[in-house]
Design brief:
With about 210 residues, this protein is of the alpha+beta class. About 45% of the residues lie in helices and about 10% in strands.
Length: about 210
């Protein structure tokens, strides 16, 4: 993961970073990284950088509060995911989008690890009783709403799903597409909004 020092270097000019350090000697490496993201956001919005002072301190406080659950090593990754999916032309970027993106990344990382484990353990599709969810009881689903991709777990139809949660029908083709990590996405959403993760990019490339 990208460390704090490289994050600051990537998103700021050294002269500007030195100015922040000199004007705010107590600024921690994490806060410097968050300031770098704040200024990168200003650039993406076509706005001038925020000068060191009260406005920058207030903005930093808001971002720091919103990102308190995002580890240092995940700041750049979560910001990139949030920024790539943000409708910049429609509304101002908010730090909560970075926190939300981190939650999605956590789910993806967990699903990827589980998929790798399952793929390593199985020899063929007959290994599982339910080929819809691989006996997990839930089907990972990406859905597009409110101008963003969201990851969720949709209860399956099989015995691995609690009775009170079971759906009448599973996610399956042709309405839905299954990615290489056993995640699902509605085909019409994929065609309209693009791939929610890199695991689905191959399907988009095949249609171009």
């Amino acid at each position: 993961m990208e460390d704090i020092k490289s994050l600051v270097t990537k998103h700021t000019a050294n002269e500007q970073a030195d100015k922040w350090k000199n004007s705010s000697p107590t600024l921690s490496p994490r806060h410097l990284a968050i300031v770098a993201l704040i200024q990168q956001t200003q650039k993406r919005r076509g706005l001038p950088l925020i000068a060191a002072g009260f406005e920058l301190q207030a903005t930093l406080k808001a971002w720091d509060d919103a990102l308190q659950n995002v580890p240092d090593g995940q700041l750049a990754r979560a910001y990139s995911r949030a920024a790539d999916n943000w409708p910049w032309a429609d509304k101002a970027f908010i730090p909560d989008a970075v926190a939300d993106a981190y939650k999605i990344l956590l789910v993806e990382d967990k699903q990827r690890a589980e998929a790798d484990k399952r793929n390593a353990a199985r020899r063929n599709a007959d290994t599982y009783k339910c080929h819809h969810c691989q006996d997990i009881g839930y089907q990972p689903l990406f859905s597009f709403r409110m101008q963003r991709w969201y990851a969720s777990q949709r209860p399956c139809v099989c015995d691995a799903t609690p009775i009170g949660q079971r759906n009448a029908t599973p996610l399956e083709e042709p309405e839905y597409l299954r990615g290489k990590l056993d995640e699902w996405v509605r085909v019409c959403d994929l065609e309209k909004h693009g791939a929610p993760t890199k695991a689905f990019e191959q399907f988009i490339a095949g249609k171009e």
